[in-house]
Sequence to fold (338 residues):
Amino acid sequence: MKKGFAISVCALVLVFALVFALYTERNRGGVDSSPPGEAEKTDDLIVIGFSQVGAESDWRMANTKSMRETFTEANGYRLILKDAQQKQANQIDAIRDFVSQKVDYIVLAPVTEEGWDEALKEAKDAGIPFIVVDRMIKVSDQGLYTCWVGSDFRKEGDIAVAWMEKNFASADEVVIAHLQGNLGSSAQIGRTEGLQAGVDRNVNWKVAVRDSGDFTQVKGKEVMARILKQYDKIDVLYCENDNMAFGAMEAMDEAGWPYGASADIAIISFDATRGGLEATLAGKINYNVECNPLHGPRVESLIRQLEKGETPSKLAYVDEEAFDAATITRQSVDAREY
Fold:
């Protein structure tokens, strides 16, 4: 009896182990739970394949959360999300996997602007509508993607530069340290172009150093620590997102460099995340330009149009605002959803 009971227990343990192994393999990484081959479909679920850049910043995580909360089974969707870990090759593989699974729509938040023609052509040949979100892409044929929704990054840069021109109008010289994001991404290109246009207009402005912090807090701190060892004077730190600004502030704190609204170094940042707005309210960031990540409902609106046989606008820009440490309110911070 005891021997039979032991065999039964062993068998039961093996069954549970097998089930757990299959479940773990199917859901590894929490980003792709689809089986190989054709994506599972039902009559009432629209299958979305979403290739996300990664999780490099607070903005990016809020963007992913917005997509997850929008494309739920309760809302009539099945979302297959793949994290590219900031590598274009991973995104191209994801697109091809979505094509092989015959998803209903492909959504791409591209890591960079160029190098998409071949993968997008495969999606188009398969008859799958392709929606680009957040950053822009450059392709030889605009017909390779259906539509795009996101921010006007050059406009964001222009807004930041207008603040600089107003607040440094009487300065004999303005020395700028520029922390760029992922080189080649739309956000980096647009925000850099905005700053460069300001430098070209103002002969007393000088970009002393430009370096990429990859939109991450760790790299922002690393780059800023190096800059502080090389330069004795900085008037403006132009950070292309909040997380790099957070890292740069850590480096300045450790080096004993004062910054912000009550100091000589003004910080301009982008994204206006809740953390960024808290820093702006505290006077640590002088000016913060919004970049809204809540694209889930916007993408869904485009899909609903396509489902009805309508043709959405090719480009859809998001309305955004900016926040000055001198005028921001607690209400603005508390109202921030991300």
The chain has two domains: 35-150+293-307, 153-291+323-334.
